[in-house]
Amino acid sequence: MPRTEFDVPGKSHGLIDVVRWRYLLRLLVRTGVTTRYRNSVLGWLWSYVRPAAQFFVFWVVLGIFMDLDRVPNYAVYLFSGIVVINLFSEGFKNATTSIVGNAPLVRKVFLPRQLFAVSAVLVSFVHFLPQLALLLLVCLLMGWAGSVTLLGILGAVAGMLIVMVFSLGLGLFFGAVNVRFRDAENIVELMLLLATWASPVLYAWTMVQEAVVGKLGWPSWIVDLYMLNPITQGVELFHYAFWRPASEVVVGSAGYAGEALTPVPPMLAANTLWAALVAIGTLLVGQLVFRRLEGKFAQDL
Predict the structure, then answer these.
(1) From CA 73, how far away is CA 248, in angstroms rounded?
(2) Neighbour count for residue 93 (Cβ, 10 Å)
(3) Residue 230 vs residues 103, 162, 170, 258: alpha-carbon distances, Å
(4) Among 129, 130, 203, 204, which is least packed by CB within 10 angstroms?
């Protein structure tokens, strides 16, 4: 008597199963979105509170106390970087803890375990949308619509995709390792602490070039390597899409006496392609490690 698919043990096919099990993926995303702020007084307003608090602290300390507001329209420059970092941080962190957090399901039911990491990144994207809407509203009030280009919009979309793929790749890798070694969560916390400072969110990329090449005398390829960081590229693409068009209106206004806009990073388009390849490579490595370790998830949990 021939065997059916119900007679043989479940076997994972990696990220391909995420597409095949898309109904369950939608259910996990819906659950993650609706339960996050359950029994919360502010509810979805918390999606604005955290970035607003981050923005206020960084703007006061760096923009006012350390005089970094010499960057034209520094408030928009800062916030457009913060929303990208928040997208990466939430997706990466939640994907890392997704397997451990769903231990009862992993132990008792067969389903593609990658679904948990993918749903975590998609939930972070949903929480990212209100912050993006706020950024867009501010830019529109500053005359962004008159200077925006199709290339800028495509750049913003590319930046989001690069950051999400990168966070998913890292989340798969550390999520798998975290099942056996819970130290992975602490390592991720340190990485997220450094991520904000390792990308041009709080400062201009030209400051890195001046410090590395001008002050330290190091070779310029270090700056090129810095620019290939997918998070750096995502932040710069958002600057190109939102901050630059809005700031051109400010700089071009009569009576403006501030500094000129920070120049566009050289080879922005080429670096976008390279950063996308780095993100995809990270996803492939993360998926490879995940599939090698997932056979012992139930045992380790």
Answers:
(1) 9
(2) 21
(3) 31, 6, 12, 31
(4) 129
Q: Is the four-CA dihedral 170, 171, 172, 177 of positive or negative sign?
A: positive
Between CA 48 and CA 138 the distance in angstroms is 14
Alpha carbon distance 9, 276 (integer Å): 36
Query: What's the CA gap between 96 and 172, in Å, rounded?
Result: 7
Which two three-digit tokens encode residue 248? 């051109």
Q: Which two tokens stand for residue 231?
A: 């998070």
How is 80-111 classified by DSSP, letter by letter?
A: HHHHHHHHHHHHHHHHHTHHHHTHHHHHH---
pLDDT tens digits along 139-168: 888 878 777 889 999 999 999 999 999 999
Please report, for residues 5, 12, 179, 208, 250, the alpha-carbon distance to residue 9 in angstroms, rounded to integers and kept in the order given.
8, 10, 22, 53, 63
Q: Which residue has the tokens 């928009």?
A: 76
CA atoms of 198 and 193, how far apart (whole Å)? 9
User: Hey, how many other C-beta atoms are within 10 angstroms of the C-beta on 31?
Assistant: 12
Helix 183-195 with 150-180: angle, nearest 10 deg: 160
User: 90: which 2 tokens?
Assistant: 């939430």
Report the predicted TM-score, pTM, of the whole model to 2 decimal places.
0.88
Contact indicator for 127, 34 with CB cutoff of 8 Å: no
What is the C-alpha to C-alpha distance for residues 230 and 211, in angstroms, rounded to an integer?
Answer: 21
For the segment 120-132, what is each residue's pLDDT rounded down to a tens digit?
A: 999 999 989 988 9
